[in-house]
Amino acid sequence: MDPRTPCLIGTAQRTVRDQPGPEPLDLWEDVAREAAREARLPVGRLDSIQLVYTDSWQYDSPVGRLADRLGAAPRHRAYSMVSGTAPQLLIGEAAGRIAAGELDSALIAGAEALATRRAYRQAGEHVPWSHPADPKPPYGWERPPHPAELAHELFLPVHTYPIMETARRASLGMSINEEMVDRGRMMAPMTEVAAANPHAWRRTARTPEELVTGNRFIGWPYTRNTVAVGEVDQAAAVVLVAAGLADRLGVPHDQRVYLRGWAYGEDTWEVAARPALGASQAIGRTAEAAFARAGLGLDDIHALDLYSCFAIALRQACDAIKLDPLDRRGLTVTGGLPYAGGPSSDYVLHSTATMAGLLRAQQGHGLVTGVGMHLTKHTYAIWSTDPGGTLGDAAPVFTADPVKIVALYDGPATVAGYTVTYGRDGAPEKGILVVDLPDGGRAHAHVLEAELLAEAMSRELVGRRVRLAADGKVNVARW
Hints:
The protein is of the alpha+beta class. The protein is built from 13 helices and 17 strands.
């Protein structure tokens, strides 16, 4: 074996349920030390320290503060942007640098303490955390929302993902009730995995019925129990090293996990610009590239973890790679973001760490996927106890061509996808539509009348002819 072959030899996860809990810097340090200890690597020996963006707190120098805590002086440092694909991009970069001989070890870590922030907020106290950035930097997204999305308040995932769900539902001819029943059947087995996962945030097995009935809507048709739980205190870390260093550290070969191949692809950044709202062109191409680089196929995979922030993310992935959602292998090794926990951009570190432990115990191949923004960005990674394949890199293997978005429009249109937003009091507030225009473009619109909202939630609205009227800021739909 080439001594520069990258392998994963250390992992760590931590979930803190006592409130208030520690700050992200403390969590970073805890998992970094634990992962390095498992790797038999002194923390001061780390060549690279890379951190996933934390929503919990803006530090003045995130990587620098952690390096100081660890007594490390890494040659390479990185702090990601916001994205559920960020962990895999950092892992992929570290693996590539190790394979090129630029580094021989790398730590990738992430931490969120949003449950603790909530605890302080509810107590009416300020968060007493260290080293705040001054001035506070801009939010870490790569691109802000489209002006038409901002105007129509369509920038929260809890609204964009349901729109894609309704589009897929209608394209398959499913009724509103059939989609909800099917969602419960798909996600209930995930709760059983979470119940057995000591690191999971929600460790209660649920029936399909419990998931889709008896709990409030977040963004119709999604209920609270079928969306990612973001206010968690969780951290994870992985350590990658060159095989030659693993040899010198005395790490047994059956405790090494290899990144056999991975790939990155993109759908359009704006949901309304997707050629097909309910399907992804990029997922299939990204998966195809990752499997080709790994020299494996879906049938070779022993365990899977598909990114599961919302049901449509699971469904589009299953559609694209031709996987039965009830496949005997299951869709997750952690329990998924709604049950194991969805710590902002960090989740793929948790799924990767869990997958590595499973593969060490059972040997074989595992698939871990990531999703960024509004089902915009996709990573597929094949991990294995058998070295081989071709790594790949972060260059997109596919980039979708966008449909034109029209900001303001007066005239007839056809509903392509929609949702109804809900307040914390459990009452519907307004509808948000993505509509097809006669010229082939797309637009957004609000639905404000109570009787129309009730109809939208009781009858299929996708395919309905509506009339838009622009009020100068937004489009308002009626029928």
